[in-house]
Specification:
Length: 392
């Protein structure tokens, strides 16, 4: 493989079959496949059904068969196996078995497995290498002393025309209706702004957690926002592009976020973004800026500093008032809106594309293959992965 070309390289990407809504992980995986293919790799996607991140005994058995099958064609070019972390991190025994058979898999890590640190530690130790989709995630697993080589391949973006915006200003939150995305807090903040002219849309799957989705819809009514806020469900194609084109401000206030690809998707359209401080979305907010952002603190409410951020990171807990304060400032200050918009338009010209992501993945694999191969332990002793048959 030379010049970041992958001619003749066979890649088997094992992905979760149980994530059906449009998630950031799914979007990244699909774009990576396109990028690797464009660079000459022979890529096969192998979905594996299961209640991941920790499947049942039978589901993990099917994963083990895929991991071994993916490395069974060594005579045909030593295929590289990459397994999505949502699947691989909860199956350390299967990862260890593949490594013991001389076919260790790479882990494509979108976010750490916070609920099962013992499983995560052993799975990472058994990996050929780890490709993290954000620096935030890479730092988290480095802190756990992961013995596998760690690389970062940030999400790319697809080019898009600048959004036209609306009058009155239109705010959009593109995220599945899930508790972590905290649309309820967002609606509470909106409820404190009804003296100002604006509209908003919540765009994202309402089938991933139907109970929470209904709670969100009920809150729109309870808070008297039915004339202001529309809950549009998951959109794609022209309908999604139309939703983006109307937007003046994007919001992603997830309680936890490894990166937040919707942030760079917003910036690609010249739409500034408000994110929650202390999450990986701060990294995404600064992706197109020549400087860097503090991952743990909040940016100034006006995106201040040099260079200016295309939006702001807000320190949030359960109180919506800090968010409402930032939004009120943006709605009432035309100069602030102009600064954020200009910064977003400047950022869109500096965002990397998906080809850069694919090249980074290829370079990571090649660097590890070319290295001397320092021996390392393939297990993390002292932790049990014994699970009941239902995997819970």
């Amino acid at each position: 493989m030379t010049g970041s070309r992958a001619d003749g390289l066979a890649v088997r990407l094992i992905v979760p079959g149980n994530v059906l809504h449009h998630s950031g992980g799914n979007a990244y995986n699909a774009a990576l496949v396109r990028g690797l293919t464009a660079l000459g790799a022979d890529v096969e996607v192998w979905p594996v059904d299961g209640h991941w991140p920790v499947g049942s005994e039978e589901e993990r058995r099917r994963l083990a068969a895929l991991l071994l099958a993916a490395g069974a064609e060594e005579a045909a070019g030593s295929p590289v196996t990459i397994v999505d972390g949502l699947v691989g991190l909860g199956a350390p025994l299967e990862m260890e078995a593949a490594a013991a058979a001389g076919r260790p898999a790479w882990i494509l890590l979108h976010m750490p497995l916070a609920d099962h640190p013992d499983l995560e530690e052993r799975a990472l130790a058994a990996a050929a290498g780890v490709i993290c989709t954000s620096s935030t995630t890479a730092a988290a697993i480095r802190d756990k002393h992961c013995p596998a080589p760690i690389h970062v391949a940030l999400p790319g973006t697809d080019a898009a025309p600048p959004a036209a915006g609306s009058n009155p200003p239109h705010l959009v939150s593109v995220a599945a209706l899930l508790p972590n995305k905290d649309q309820l807090l967002l609606l509470e903040a909106f409820a404190g702004l009804t003296d100002l002219p604006w509209t908003a849309a919540l765009v994202g799957s309402d089938s991933a957690d139907t109970v929470y989705a209904q709670t969100v819809r009920n809150a729109v009514t309870r808070l008297g926002l039915t004339d202001r806020v529309t809950v549009r469900g998951e959109l794609a194609g022209d309908a999604l592009e139309e939703a983006w084109h109307r937007a003046d401000l994007s919001l992603l206030i997830s309680r936890a976020e490894a990166y937040g690809m919707v942030v760079t998707e917003s910036l690609a359209r010249g739409i500034p973004v408000v994110v929650r401080a202390g999450t990986g979305a701060v990294e995404a907010l600064a992706a197109g800026s020549p400087g860097t952002a503090d991952q743990d603190g909040a940016a100034a409410p006006d995106g201040g500093g040099e260079p200016a951020l295309p939006g702001a990171a807000v320190v949030l807990g359960a109180d919506p008032s800090p968010l409402a304060l930032v939004l009120r400032g943006w709605l009432t200050d035309p100069e602030l809106r102009s600064r954020w918009r200009d910064a977003a338009l400047a950022a869109r010209n500096r965002l990397p594309g998906w080809e850069a992501t694919a090249r980074t993945v290829l370079d990571s694999i090649e660097a590890d293959r070319a290295g001397p191969g320092v021996p390392r332990k393939r297990t993390a002793p002292g932790h049990s992965v014994a699970l009941p048959a239902d995997g819970q």
